[in-house]
Structures are given as C-alpha cells and as structure tokens.
C-alpha cells in the first residue's frame, strides 16, 4: 500500500521558491490521487493542490493559484509541489495525502505523510 514521505521544506525568504517532494515507499503511487494540504499554527488544515492518477487533472486552492504547481512522476514514485513567490502566509506544515478518489476535502484522503515545515520570512 501507499506509504508517503514528504521532504523539501525549510526556511525561505518572501518571494523565494521551494519544491516539496512526496515519495511513496510502497511503490503504488500511480494508483492514487495525491493531494497537498497545509496547516498553519492556530489554523485548520486546508487544501492546497491535488493531482489525478495520470497527472492530467490538477486543482489548486485560490490562495496559491498562479504561484504553485503540482506534478507527478509515477515512474519515480514521486509527486512534487513547486512553490514560487512564497509569502509569509504560506508558512505551515505541508502534508501530502493519497486518495482513491478525486477530492479536496482532507477527510476523503486515506493515507498521509508526516508533514514537512515550510517557513517564509518577511
């Protein structure tokens, strides 16, 4: 089954970029929709982006449209979240999650990674 591990978080200045990676050690990532979510201190977990099994369909939260992109490389068992033009309000723990269906609601996802911290300084 899918087992997800996020990486690529860190500290970056406003306006900078980071690329987050979501790796599946279970080697089954191509069978899942992959979503990215984030949770800032004191806030609820929110949807960021999702990508379909093949990568043909993607969705983004309004807050990140035009700045973030999501992609996947099923051969490498990887999904990426490219974050550009980062703002301090992007600071959060970012999680990737796997679902057998295409959803933006966190409770529809079956498997979750441990999260990676992204901190954007002003």
Q: How does the SSE layout of this entry go?
A:
Layout: E1 4-7, E2 10-13, E3 18-24, E4 33-39, E5 46-51, E6 58-60, E7 68-73, E8 78-83, E9 92-99, E10 111-112, E11 116-121
Parallel strand pairs: 2-11
Antiparallel strand pairs: 1-3, 3-8, 4-5, 4-9, 5-6, 7-8, 9-10, 9-11
Protein described:
The protein has about 120 residues and is an all-beta fold. It has strands at about 5, 10-15, 20-25, 35-40, 45-50, 60, 70-75, 80-85, 90-100, 110, 115-120. Strands 2, 4, 5, 6, 9, 10 and 11 form a 7-stranded mixed sheet that branches. A 4-stranded antiparallel sheet has the order 1-3-8-7, with no helix packed on it. A hairpin with a 6-residue loop joins β4 (about 35-40) and β5 (about 45-50).
Give me the strand/helix succession: EEEEEEEEEEE
Protein structure class: mainly beta
Q: Roughly what percent helix?
A: under 10%
Q: What is the tally of beta strands?
A: 11
Terminus-to-terminus distance? 40 Å
Chain-averaged pLDDT: 94
